[in-house]
Design brief:
Number of helices: 10
CATH class: Alpha Beta
Distance between the termini: 53 Å
Oligomer: single chain
Structural class: alpha/beta
CATH topology: Rossmann fold
Number of domains: 1
Strand order of the largest sheet: 1-6-5-2
Strand content: 15-25%
Helix content: 40-55%
């Protein structure tokens, strides 16, 4: 393909993105970085613990990007979010050496099969895949989730009552024993989802479970 054909192809892709996302020629990576820069470091830090970190609060414009990934299948933004999460993981979890990184595996919070089909995307999986690739550590789709009402349709008490949502896939259980696991999701609301998934992984033999999310909802 010659240069003129490449230019025409890139122009066509930009026009498709403009039509599909209503964002002009906005670059996903730039949009993600600008959204994160608008977050207050102090506000972000108050959410975080030694085993939980995020990129920001669930507020504009970061919340808009997260919804665009999920609802409009903006996969490029999901990849950009995963890369930024990976860089933060290196600092927060001390993944600076190859020996340390080899002790970890990445596990995404799974989207129920029917919901994944209806949306046409598994947003957490895309974010986790980009994170794992950036850190050069294994990605294991070790969990599955029972289908039920979405988190946003439940109040806090309803989320707390929705127990036993997660289970370990039969052929993945042995690979979790003795491992440190980085659990990845897009949004943390009450923390019940991450807590339940972490418990299942620890019961399967994981040594430690840390959580990485794009954003958190103000309690």
């Amino acid at each position: 393909m010659n240069n003129s054909m490449w230019k025409r192809a890139l122009t066509w892709l930009a026009q498709c993105e403009e039509y599909f996302l209503g964002r002009g020629r906005e670059n996903a990576q730039r949009a993600v970085h600008e959204a994160i820069q608008m977050q207050s470091p102090h506000e972000v830090a108050k959410f975080e613990t030694s085993d939980l970190y995020c990129l920001g609060r669930y507020e504009l414009p970061l919340s808009e990007i997260v919804l665009a990934v999920k609802k409009q299948r903006w996969s490029r933004a999901a990849t950009a979010l995963g890369i930024v999460l990976a860089r933060k993981a290196e600092v927060k979890l001390g993944m600076t050496g190859n020996a340390t990184a080899q002790d970890w595996i990445v596990v995404p919070i799974p989207t129920p099969f029917l919901r994944r089909v209806m949306r046409g995307i598994d947003h957490s999986d895309l974010i986790a895949s980009a994170l794992a690739c950036e850190l050069r550590i294994p990605l294991r789709r070790a969990l599955w989730q029972r289908f039920g009402r979405t988190q946003k349709t439940l109040n806090r008490s309803g989320r707390l009552r929705r127990l036993q949502r997660f289970a370990v896939r039969r052929w993945r259980g042995k690979g979790l024993v003795g491992k440190n696991i980085l659990l990845v999701d897009d949004i943390r609301t009450t923390g019940v989802t991450l807590a339940q998934a972490s418990q299942v992984l620890l019961q399967a033999g994981a040594t430690r479970v840390a959580s990485a999310v794009v954003c958190m909802v103000e309690k």
